[in-house]
Amino acid sequence: MELKVPPVIVFLCFGSIMYLLDLVLPIGYFDFFGRLMLAKFLVGIGMVIALLALLQFRLAKTTVDPTKPDKAQSLVVSGVFKFSRNPMYLALLLILLALGIFLGNAFNTLVAAGFVAYM
Q1: Where do the DSSP E strands lie in 18-119?
Q2: Residues 84-102 pLDDT 10s
Q3: Which DSSP string do the residues of 12-42 spell out, in sequence order?
Q4: Do the Cβ atoms of 91 and 119 come closer than 8 Å?
Q5: What is the C-alpha to C-alpha distance for residues 92 and 72, in angstroms, rounded to an integer?
Q6: How far apart are alpha carbons 17 and 20 in whole angstroms?
């Protein structure tokens, strides 16, 4: 399958959908002790994973742009890539889940699942 839309744009679109869903859908709200701390933790983990993946790409001297696979110089299989086939998408998912928890709308988990299905 050819990737036509850059993942960051897809991520921003799904994040916007989550925000709009929170504005227009008054049902499905949840709150629990530590909700904001959990959201911050997930963002932090997502950012660490993304930065480690970017570092591995730089060390391998290959491209990070998935829309241009012909520019890839090598296949990265070390570092965070030992644990996840695509840690950058995992990082984006964690940040989307953090946004859903921050907004406190249970329906946002469906949007995050849609992100995974699309990617």
Answers
A1: none
A2: 889 999 999 999 999 999 9
A3: HHHHHHHHHHHHH--S-B---TTHHHHHHHH
A4: no
A5: 21
A6: 5
How far apart (Å, rounded) are the C-alpha atoms in residues 64 and 43? 20
Report helix, strand or coil for 105: strand
What six digits make up the tokens of 70? 């012909």
Contact 92, 11 (CB under 8 A): yes
Residue 92: enclosing H or E segment and its boundaries?
helix 87-103
Q: Which residue has the tokens 């520019």?
A: 71
pLDDT digits (tens, 9 = 90+) for 25-57: 878 888 899 999 999 999 999 999 999 999 988
Q: Do 92 and 100 contact (CB within 8 A), yes or no?
A: no
Token couple for 117: 């299905």
How far apart CA 101 and CA 23 sit, in angstroms, is 14
